[in-house]
């Protein structure tokens, strides 16, 4: 993933903007998925969530551009116009861009609405899946393993459903608890999937916030504060695993 920016895949250079992107892309992809599903169901809130999805996608695409050290080079534009099948971030950039396009057409009521809704759903799934895959393929990072390919889409859905619950949509409560429970299970299993050296680094560098965000996730099952707890837990875990996971191992 790091070579996408023209930088060597070594050292720790990701900062809070990169962590913010991994939170925003989950929220944007999750809300886009909800909006596409609501369009397919012809739900009265479909247009409202499409507008939210468009705003979040635009914000995240800006962050994705702004976080790159090559953002003011003309050649950087071609990173988004080109497509590399082996690059998860390429899938993510195009997934977000095409989600924005199809979502915009749906919001404006232009084109074949049913076909656009299915396309919106497909592209949102790509945006939803890409962050975990982008981390999982970095084999030289001991804290980024295959489990993240499942954990990140689940936390993205928690983010989106928590936002929907906070926006007053009653249908979001039950699936929020379902996906919060699934993400908490994977989160609890995550340290057990790491090598002892990597597990020790996780506990040393991020043990307290990891436990805190795990406990906050349990609050997602509460009636009143559940959406806030789910939102904070999912966002915190995503950011923490991005920042702490840059570690390459002892002696490297």
TrEMBL record:
Record keyword Nucleotide-binding present: no
Keyword Transmembrane: yes
Chain coiled-coil ranges: none
TM regions (residue ranges): 20-40, 49-68, 88-108, 115-137, 143-166, 178-196, 202-221, 228-247
Domain of life the protein comes from: Bacteria
Alphabetical list of InterPro entries matching this protein: NrfD_2
Keywords: Membrane, Transmembrane, Transmembrane helix
The protein, known as: Polysulfide reductase
Native organism: Thermus oshimai JL-2
């Amino acid at each position: 993933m790091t070579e996408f920016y023209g930088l060597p895949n070594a050292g720790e250079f990701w900062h809070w903007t990169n962590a913010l992107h991994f939170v925003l892309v989950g929220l944007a992809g999750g809300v886009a998925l909800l909006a596409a599903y609501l369009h397919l169901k012809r739900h009265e809130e479909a247009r409202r969530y499409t507008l939210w999805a468009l705003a979040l996608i635009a914000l995240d695409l800006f962050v994705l551009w702004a976080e790159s050290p090559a953002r003011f080079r003309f050649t950087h534009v071609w990173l988004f116009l080109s497509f590399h099948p082996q690059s998860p971030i390429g899938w993510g950039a195009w997934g977000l861009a095409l989600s924005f396009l199809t979502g915009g057409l749906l919001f404006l009521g232009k084109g074949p609405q049913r076909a656009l809704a299915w396309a919106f759903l497909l592209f949102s799934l790509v945006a939803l899946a890409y962050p975990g895959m982008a981390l999982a393929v970095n084999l030289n990072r001991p804290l980024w393993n295959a489990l993240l390919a499942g954990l990140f889409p689940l936390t993205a859905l928690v983010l989106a459903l928590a936002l929907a619950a906070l926006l007053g949509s009653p249908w979001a409560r039950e699936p929020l608890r379902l996906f919060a429970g699934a993400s908490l299970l994977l989160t609890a299993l995550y340290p057990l999937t790491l090598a002892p050296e990597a597990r020790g680094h996780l506990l040393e560098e991020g043990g307290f916030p990891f436990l805190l965000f795990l406990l906050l996730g349990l609050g997602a099952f509460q009636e009143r504060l559940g959406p806030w707890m789910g939102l904070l837990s999912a966002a915190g875990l995503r950011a923490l695993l991005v920042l702490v996971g840059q570690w390459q191992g002892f002696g490297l």
